[in-house]
Amino acid sequence: MGETPEQDDGSDTAPVIDLASGLLLAGLAGLALVWIIPANIDADAGDYDVSPIFMPNLIAWVVLALGLALAGSAAKRARTGWQPASRTILFDTAGWAVASTLAYLALVHIGFQVTAPIIIAAGLWFAGQRSLILIAVLAIGLPLAIRTGAWQIFQVALP
Amino acid sequence: MDILSQLLVGFHAALTPVNILFIAFGISLGIVIGVIPGLGSVTAIAVLIPLTFYMSPVVAIAFLVGVNKGGTSGGAVPSILLNTPGTPEAAASAFDGYPMSRKGQSGKAMKYALYSSVAGDTLSDMLLILLAAPFAALALQFGPLELTAVFFFAFALLAGLTSDSVIKGLLAIFVGVFLSTIGLDPIDSSPRMVFGRVELFDGLPLIAVAIGGLALSSVMFQMTELWRHGDTHRRHDTLAADRAQNRLRPAEFFDHWRTIVRSAAIGSGVGMLPGLGVTLAAFLSYGAARRASKNPESFGKGNPEGIIATEAANSAVVGSNLIPTIAIGIPGNIAAALLIGAFMIHGIVPGPFMLTMHGDVIYALVASMLIANVVHLVIGRAGIGIWSWVARAPRSAVLPPVIVMGIAGVYLPNQSLFEIGIMLAFAVLGVLMRYTGFSIVCLVIGFLLGSMLEGSLRKALLLHRGDFSAILSSPISMIFFAIGLFVLIRAFRKS
User: Fold this and answer.
1) Which of A78, A108, B112, B119 lies 20 to 30 Å (CA to CA) from residue A61?
2) Which domain holds residue B422?
């Protein structure tokens, strides 16, 4: 597919990761079947239709079965050779989750014009860019250009 | 009206200054993004879809198709100059492009890449014109049961071919389908899993899911790599100065017509099947060119046929992947899936009725694609020096601004901060999926096709009163179910 090189890059798929993913997905599907779907969808079908609950239920059952199958096959693989999972998965995902939450809260409370330069400057520094001039130009210039473009072309005021 | 007269009407609608301007803009933007290693046409289309809200359907889709065309061919520039493919589908161009560069023929190699790309693209667009209408006419014979079988076949192919583990591929697809059920029920409009949030009544926003899952997660993943390992791409200055050495006469290019036609055929064939992808087309074509060559040992040492085979094939996918999109509403690849999203945003429901209900738009789009090939040739040729310069931009300076562009892009259409939150959540989910080996592409396609699958499955159940043996009454559905099962069993055995 026309994706970037890292698009489907599962860099670490030790059995323990598949086991955890399978169990997590099966657990979430179970939760959906037991609570989320019954509590949030009216199961009554119209006279001429299948119930609105049908499709979510069907898919949740499929995910539950596939999740257990994944966990089962991973457990089988783990028995032949146990590989510890890399901690970077949790560390990186948690890091990006925290950064995304902070960015979202900053957008809600202090707006685009302050948050965007911080995101760009922090992102450039994090990615290894050390040219202060480039960082300053991009962090100040790009959000200003986007804000001006959004207003002048689309008449939309960014938050 | 026959195809030719409809195409003429399409040309009449497409040959407007605004349309041509946006095609040119899309191609230029696509090439620039394709040239920068790490970005690609998928990221570009995902981030740019929101901008098309304000355009007419023809201009919007033509612009995005231009981005896709430019992005696909742009990847060859860093392959040739820096031995660093801008996109995975251009990886094989480096095998012969970079050795040509080192001999001082980088300009000639880039011309070979551009001309092959345009030739492959044009041949596949012609195939699209010839095949879309007959395929759509055939698909009109499909009832809900047959469509459900086609979805099953497409999902089996996707899971079996795009993911290392078929179970993980299927899981990603079905999680996507499950997420598509959030919102109002398509038939009786009762709310499903909206948790009292009015913003969820229309379901999860496609643009936020696509930009977050495909574009931002890729950017975050790459930024983490840069932070951990630094920019490891090799950068050698290989720009040639000798003009005579870099001249490419038309006759010299067309001497390779067999490779062009063979590669375009391989690319078109691969593009028509869901899930097979551009990269596979490029490598299959490279292998075929090498096998057919009288001097196979010259491949990898600067044989232009290696570049021609790769670029003609990967560009041929762009046109042909719209054949299943237009005929049955199933995308040939992720770029086509995003185009389906763009079609839906502009009120055009993909599938066999597209040609009967929106024939004017579709033929204007096809005409725009043919016009885009000419524009691509002109812009690509004129800008060779510029693309070479852009290829040297460091990834560390290019990736972070994409996050801010994504935020602005998602906010523009509905001015909703909630959608930005959804986008960021899917970006983090995408990072996690990349690490754990789940295909985010499968999830997005499952999400996109989920509502169509639900519609056809529910209609099929109603029509046949829940009788699953009805599958046996339809030869078409039996064929698609059987092939799907075969693909799944084969993939299970392999993995």
Assistant:
1) A78
2) 3-494
Cα distance between residue B236 and residue B434, in whole Å = 30
A69 part of contact set with chain B, CB < 8 Å:
yes
* Cα–Cα distance, B421 to B197 (Å, whole number): 14
CB proximity list for B176: less than 8 A, separation 6 or greater: B442, B443, B444, B445, B446, B447, B448, B450
* Chain A residues touching B71 at Cβ < 8 A: 2
CA dist list (Å): B419 to B49, B175, B199:
15, 19, 9
The total number of structural domains that make up chain B: 1
- Whether A37 sits inside 8 A of B193 (CB atoms) is yes
Full DSSP string of B437-483 = T--HHHHHHHHHHHHHHHHHHHHHHHHTTT-GGGGGG-HHHHHHHHH
Is B345 at the interface with chain A, CB within 8 A?
Answer: no
Q: Give the amino acid at A49.
A: D
Using a CB–CB cutoff of 8 Å, tell me whether A133 touches chain B: no
Angstrom distance (rounded) from CA B453 to CA B464: 16
Q: Is the ipTM of this complex over 0.95?
A: no
Q: Is B15 on the interface with A (CB under 8 A)?
A: no
Question: pLDDT, tens digit, for every residue of B319-364?
Answer: 888 888 888 888 877 788 888 888 888 888 887 778 778 888 888 9
d(CA B393, CA B402): 14
pTM for the model: 0.84
What is the pLDDT, as a whole number, of residue B308?
A: 95
